[in-house]
């Protein structure tokens, strides 16, 4: 069996007690105790703070200074190792005081039996180690939290700083367009329209960037109300048709449902799915947007007739920053965030988002949402 080594700093003004302890320690099997003795309490305090050791044993009676004061002072100065107080006869009432001052345990000198002594020393050392481990973990967690907080503040600041000039740029582009629409200069109108599209793209990118940091921080917020599902879909389809002059956005069916949820977030999902269909199926002539419902759910399917998505990556496309490799990825812009954010939104709205796709035959992205979900009653009454 391995011999364990433990270094003990003993602060004890009585040499006889030192010898007694040394004898008791040599009887403990499997452990070699390196006992370092200091008889002067002031020098003892100094050695506690600078000497290498595993544990400190100190006497309650140390001349003018008592052991408890010494413990308190050592702790005050940052001493972090375990301390065991040695008490004389009839001093058992000081045990609580010792613990309060920062001792880990105490032992009565007249009861220096080998097994008790070894157990107390070992436990005190192990307990202290575990305690320090816990403290370290806790402080690491705090540091991570602090870092996250600072990162969020940074992201918010960047987002704000990026948005401010963009908002102003957008206003200027609109003024230009208005101005030239009066004089009827077609080329300028087209240019300003393109400017506007690019500005919107940038705005969306900034929002996505902000959304993922919110998702990661568990701070993606929802503003819920009743809304007309078909109306939302129609609105988005009409808004997006001008984005493409090749694919026709075709609507199929209706739900006729009023849904409880975050209209704008769900709109964000629909926009992203249609945008993907436009981007990744550029050579097809139509995109079918199918609305369905039953008693409790609405379902939306967005079907394109593009290249489809290989089976092997179908679950990966919902991960942040994932983009299917290939020629298209390089030419079509995107960060690979849209589906990740969309899946998170649908999940938080207690629905499901999935894809059905076969390579070469196009993709169908679908989501279902519950029509009713638990929400505060008063909001139901005020909703129209
Ligand atoms: N309709 C689709 N057809 C083929 N591939 C698709 C389709 N929709 C998504 N993908 C693939 O899944 C990837 C991830 O899509 P996602 O919407 O998350 O990101 P993105 O469109 O690349 O960028 P972002 O939406 O952040 O602008 C895309 O890069 C593309 O490879
Ligand atoms: Mg996308």
UniProtKB/TrEMBL annotation:
Domain (Response regulatory): residue spans on this chain: 7-124
4-aspartylphosphate found at: 59
SMART domains: HATPase_c, HisKA, REC
Residues forming coiled coils: 120-150
CC per GO annotation: plasma membrane
Domain Histidine kinase: 157-373
Main location: membrane
Pfam families noted in UniProt: HATPase_c, HisKA, Response_reg
Swiss-Prot/TrEMBL keywords: ATP-binding, Cell membrane, Coiled coil, Kinase, Membrane, Nucleotide-binding, Phosphoprotein, Transferase, Two-component regulatory system
Keyword flag Membrane: yes
Cell compartment(s), UniProt: Cell membrane
One GO MF term: ATP binding
InterPro entries referenced in this protein's UniProt entry, alphabetically: CheY-like_superfamily, HATPase_C_sf, HATPase_dom, His_kinase_dom, HisK_dim/P_dom, Sig_transdc_His_kin-like_C, Sig_transdc_resp-reg_receiver
The UniProt record lists the keyword Translocase: no
EC category: transferase
EC number(s) from the headed UniProt entry: 2.7.13.3
Reaction catalysed by this enzyme: ATP + protein L-histidine = ADP + protein N-phospho-L-histidine
Gene3D superfamilies, per the entry: 1.10.287.130, 3.40.50.2300, Histidine kinase-like ATPase, C-terminal domain
Protein name: histidine kinase
């Amino acid at each position: 069996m391995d011999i364990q080594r433990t270094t003990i700093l003993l602060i004890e003004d009585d040499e006889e007690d030192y010898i007694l302890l040394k004898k008791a320690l040599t009887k403990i099997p499997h452990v070699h105790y390196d006992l370092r003795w200091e008889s002067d309490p002031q020098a003892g305090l100094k050695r506690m703070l600078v000497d290498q050791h595993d544990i400190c044993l100190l006497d309650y009676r140390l001349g003018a200074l008592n052991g408890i004061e010494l413990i308190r002072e050592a702790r005050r100065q940052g001493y972090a190792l375990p301390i065991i107080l040695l008490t004389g006869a009839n001093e058992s009432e000081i045990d609580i005081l010792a613990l309060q001052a920062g001792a880990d345990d105490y032992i009565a000198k007249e009861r220096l039996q080998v097994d008790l002594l070894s157990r107390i020393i070992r436990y005190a050392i192990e307990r202290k180690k575990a305690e320090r481990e816990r403290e370290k973990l806790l402080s690491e967690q705090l540091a991570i939290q602090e870092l996250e907080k600072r990162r969020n503040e940074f992201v918010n600041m960047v987002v704000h700083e990026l948005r401010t000039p963009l908002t102003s740029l957008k206003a200027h582009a609109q003024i230009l367009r208005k101005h030239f629409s009066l004089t009827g200069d077609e080329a300028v109108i087209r240019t300003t329209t393109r400017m506007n599209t690019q500005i919107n793209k940038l705005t969306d990118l900034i929002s996505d960037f902000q959304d993922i940091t919110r998702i990661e921080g568990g701070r993606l917020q929802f503003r819920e109300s009743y809304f007309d599902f078909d109306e939302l879909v129609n609105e988005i389809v009409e808004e997006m048709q001008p984005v493409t002059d090749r694919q026709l956005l075709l609507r199929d069916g209706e739900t006729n449902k009023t849904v409880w949820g975050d209209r704008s977030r769900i709109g964000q999902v629909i926009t992203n799915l249609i945008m993907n269909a436009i981007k990744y199926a550029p050579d097809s002539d139509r995109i079918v947007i199918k609305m369905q419902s039953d008693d409790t759910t609405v379902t939306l399917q967005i079907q394109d007739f593009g290249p489809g998505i290989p089976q092997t990556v179908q679950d990966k496309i919902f991960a942040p920053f994932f983009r299917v490799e290939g020629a298209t990825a390089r030419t079509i812009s995107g960060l690979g965030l849209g589906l990740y954010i969309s899946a998170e939104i649908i999940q938080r709205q207690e629905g499901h988002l999935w894809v059905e796709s076969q390579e070469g035959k196009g993709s169908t992205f679908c989501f279902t949402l519950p029509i009713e979900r638990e929400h505060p009653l008063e909001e139901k009454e005020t909703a129209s």
